[in-house]
Design goal:
The structure is a single chain. This protein has 179 residues and is α+β, with helices and mostly antiparallel strands. It has a single domain (20-138, 170-176), classed as GAF domain (Beta-Lactamase, 2-Layer Sandwich), CATH 3.30.450. The chain has 5 helices and 6 strands. It has helices at residues 3-15, 23-37, 62-74, 78-85, 102-110, and strands at 42-48, 54-59, 89-91, 115-123, 126-135, 158-159. Strands 1, 2, 3, 4, 5 and 6 form a 6-stranded antiparallel β-sheet that branches. Strand 4 (115-123) and strand 5 (126-135) form a beta hairpin.
């Protein structure tokens, strides 16, 4: 990974963590940086609302936004699995997952995506959503994206590859925003 590009992305993300930052703008910036730095073609972020229901918060493009909505409407897909288990989901070839997620796999392939990697987004120890990374070609992912070893001082939602306790995660609106 290009270290200058990574440093620029962290500076850009940190610049948005001011007292009155806009969460949607921050998450869109996150998805754009994921596409630019991680060798994926698209990215999407889903976060839980006050009732623990996932909502599409940001997507790198409209095709992925529609696919994320499809995932929620059909109650199947890697994001939902990741959110509920708190564990990353990596699928190098969606064509092999027809039994696991029949409607999602078919729709993703029809939309041009052949591989997906999903990592839980956490606020402290609570799973508050998931980050989906899509590729148009099948094949292994190098490794799951990892959060920095130390949390950011303002504790925004962050991608992490560590497991959370099982069960349905929830996020209140106040816990998804900085104080």
């Amino acid at each position: 990974m290009n270290e200058q590009l990574l440093a620029k992305a962290f500076v850009e993300l940190a610049d948005n963590l001011v007292a009155d930052f806009d969460l949607i703008d921050f998450l869109r910036l996150l998805t754009d940086n994921c596409v630019g730095m991680l060798g994926v073609n698209a990215a999407g972020v889903l976060l839980a609302d006050l009732n623990g229901e996932l909502r599409v918060m940001a997507a790198s493009d409209e095709h992925v936004r529609v696919l994320e909505l499809f995932q929620l409407q059909n109650d199947e897909g890697p994001c939902l699995e990741c959110f509920h288990t708190g564990a990353p989901v990596t699928v190098p070839d969606l064509a092999t997952e027809a039994a696991r997620w029949p409607r999602f796999a078919e729709q993703a392939l029809r939309s041009g995506y052949s591989a997906v990697q999903t990592v839980p987004m956490r606020l402290r120890d609570e799973v508050v959503g998931a980050l989906n990374l899509f590729r148009t070609r099948p094949g292994p992912f190098d490794r799951p994206p990892r959060a920095s070893p130390r949390p950011w001082p303002t504790s925004p939602p962050s991608a992490s590859s560590s497991s959370a306790p099982p069960g349905r995660a929830r996020c209140s609106t106040s816990s998804c925003r900085p104080p």
